[in-house]
């Protein structure tokens, strides 16, 4: 259970304890912007998001690397909040002094997205359906506008602008973070010099749109969801638990899951007595998910699913047209054993870029984690990333 | 939609229309046995299952090949019920006169399992929670005993015995059918000469036990399920629809799914307006599942999930001990692109058999269907199967 909790913790924004030496201490800060106009044509009166940074902004403000987070993550990409934190940020193995993303050289900044999955996590600052709608004094619920990956990017752009930053040396992200990274490059080509897509895609295909819908169904099916209006009642924790368990399962390859989960005895008496009794492997997965569920918000999960389902880089008529806009150097790092965003997705994008005469770099991450190799095995690509950033 | 309906139809027991010439006409028959003792130690007063056969039983009754069906399939493995049926049985490409499983030589027989997923399909005859409990005159519901893959095998064994058949030239099955096939070889080693496991496994691992649980959760979460007591009320069709959609998605590789499903327009207005509006790819998948849902039974799906979750060939203390019992020649045909029962499962079983000095044959099926290559691409292994049966 402990390892799986760590895994679920990980895909919820924390990381396995790594050998600790001189971990950076970091502080969560809040960025606020007003009258934020969404892609869907609405205006959010007040947007708050959390952010962190590692390293120093130089005088020219041209040493900036933006890190964009994955579906169930947050801005805690590196370092620790206090020296005795059990775990540092999720990409601590590649972000820090002398590391692949070298904080002695670069000012590395990372922000929480809109509609973050875990708004009840004390380390997350986000704005979404759970936030108070100033017009009513109540949580927005489903009155919150649908947001897109471009909206996440636009909030980050305002954050950077507030710091006087107009250009990114690089933007890098894993999974949903990779969607934001490539969206940055396609939406604001003159502001992005390098783009690193880890376990990512240039657009959602039908299979992945459907796969994401399975994450939404358990929430919508939970009577406590109540069409999104549950903030004065009971949260739909059963639905959230199913959703989180599904995400964990799809993010982990069988090899690592079978190494961690309890092995089943032949014909366990409980399992043979009734279909309503759970098996040990099931308790292991769903127990860990249930323990994280109260930190999540059901509507936020639905909004995140939708933001991902709608994704096509650049918002042009098709992916090729969106990619046509990109001027950045690009690096794609899918994971060979990924069962969720399989390498074919990154390959398709790379082939389109190549057909446009561009020169994307493509390397696969090896590992036994599956999708989570983009987090747990990222250090195997440290040299590739370092060289790409220096080039 | 049409192709996906065919696919869902397929994994529910039918098959794509193949070039038709001299399709065998077949007839569903019913086998009844009384006081059937289950592995779980209970007794089912009356068991009815449907069965079909192709070819002629010889006088020595030693030319028998048993076909065991997959999770959402039934006994309709080959031929047609009437000449104008749209589709023949699911393995019609390899079962018939002169085909890999040659009905000019072999008497091929196939039966519906206990707790078949689609008891409301007029072509399915099965016994399970939806059946009338003679003790009460009402459907069993959750009073029906939990059954195992061994129980499926034991019903088939009684059916064969009623025909005077004591030995199988071979047993062959895909997916859940492969579990039955290997269970036959491990449970009754003196009765099975050859075993063909297609897209199969020797035992369930923790990852697959969890994956199966995701199929059960939507049903248990549907208020209409009512702890299994819904036969006088409204069936939990929402839950069943989620389950069937998940099965279809996992059985199909992204390549084939993306070829069939509607492509998404950039920023579709409906999807951008509300998270409660479905996207076209989602309507495609869930619409097809909803159209099949009334033929399924929720409790039967839960019992099938449990039968699969409990599976370990031979019911010994571990898989190796179970496999130790096998005397049959064995052939394993996993599908290279299978995302549900991936080739590592068949490989593990093959390696255990080899370590015991046995000589299993292992070949992978290539194709773009994923798990369903075990059905749709099985004809690519026709020569392998033919040679294996002749050996």
Fold and architecture overview:
Chains A, B: It is an enzyme of class 2 (transferase). Two copies of one chain form a homodimer. The first copy, chain A, has helices spanning 2-10, 149-162, 176-187, 206-221, 237-251, 254-260, 269-273, 280-292, 298-309, 319-324, 343-355, 373-376, 382-390, and strands at residues 29-37, 43-54, 64-68, 95-96, 101-102, 107-111, 132-133, 138-139, 170-174, 194-198, 329-333, 361-362. Chain A is an alpha/beta fold and 391 residues long. The first copy, chain A, starts with a helix and ends with a helix. The longest helix of chain A has 16 residues, at 206-221. Chain A is globular and about 65 Å long. Chain A has one domain: 3-Layer(aba) Sandwich (Rossmann fold). In chain A, the strands form three sheets. In chain A, strands 1-2-6-3-9-10-11-12 form an eight-stranded mixed β-sheet, sandwiched between helices. In chain A, strands 4-5 form a two-stranded parallel ribbon. The first copy, chain A, has a two-stranded antiparallel sheet with strand order 7-8. At the A-B interface, helix 4, helix 5, helix 6, helix 7 and helix 8 of A face helix 4, helix 5, helix 6, helix 7 and helix 8 of B.
Task: Write a concise keyword list for the protein shown above.
Rossmann fold; Probable acyltransferase (chains A, B); transferase (chains A, B); homodimer; signal (chains A, B); 391 residues; two-stranded parallel ribbon; 13 helices; AB_hydrolase_fold (chains A, B); alpha/beta
């Amino acid at each position: 259970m402990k390892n799986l909790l760590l895994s679920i913790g990980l895909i919820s924004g924390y990381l396995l304890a790594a050998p600790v030496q001189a971990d950076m201490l970091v502080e969560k800060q809040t960025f606020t912007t007003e009258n934020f106009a969404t892609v869907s044509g609405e205006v959010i009166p007040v947007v708050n998001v959390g952010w962190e940074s590692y390293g120093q902004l130089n005088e020219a403000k041209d040493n900036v690397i933006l890190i964009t987070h994955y579906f169930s993550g947050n801005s805690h990409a590196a370092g620790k909040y206090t020296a005795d934190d059990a775990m540092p940020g999720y990409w601590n193995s590649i972000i820090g002094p002398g590391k692949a993303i070298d904080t002695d050289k670069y000012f590395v900044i990372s922000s929480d997205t809109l509609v973050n999955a875990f708004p009840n996590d004390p380390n997350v600052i986000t704005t979404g359906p759970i936030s108070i709608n100033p017009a009513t004094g109540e949580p927005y619920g489903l009155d919150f506008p649908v947001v897109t990956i471009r909206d996440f990017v636009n909030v980050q752009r305002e954050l950077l602008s507030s710091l006087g930053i107009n250009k990114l040396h690089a933007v890098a992200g894993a999974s949903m973070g990779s969607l934001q990274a490539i969206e940055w490059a396609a939406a604001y080509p003159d502001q992005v010099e390098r783009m690193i897509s880890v376990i990512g895609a240039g657009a959602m295909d039908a299979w992945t749109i459907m796969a994401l819908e399975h994450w939404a169904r358990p929430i919508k099916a939970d009577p406590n969801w109540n069409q999104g209006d549950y903030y004065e009642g009971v949260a739909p924790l059963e639905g959230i638990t199913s959703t989180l368990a599904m995400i964990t399962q799809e993010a982990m390859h069988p090899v690592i899951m079978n190494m961690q989960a309890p092995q089943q005895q032949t014909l366990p008496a409980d399992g043979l007595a009734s279909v309503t009794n759970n098996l040990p492997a099931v308790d292991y997965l769903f127990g860990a998910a249930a323990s994280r569920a109260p930190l999540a918000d059901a509507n936020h999960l639905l909004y995140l699913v939708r933001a991902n389902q709608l994704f096509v880089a650049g918002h042009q008529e098709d992916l090729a047209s969106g990619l046509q806009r990109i001027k950045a150097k690009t690096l794609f790092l899918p994971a060979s054993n990924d069962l969720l965003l399989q390498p074919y997705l990154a390959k398709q994008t790379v082939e389109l870029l190549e057909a446009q005469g561009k020169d994307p770099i493509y390397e696969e991450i090896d590992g036994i984690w599956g999708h989570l190799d983009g987090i747990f095995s990222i250090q195997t690509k440290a040299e590739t990333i370092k060289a790409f950033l220096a080039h």
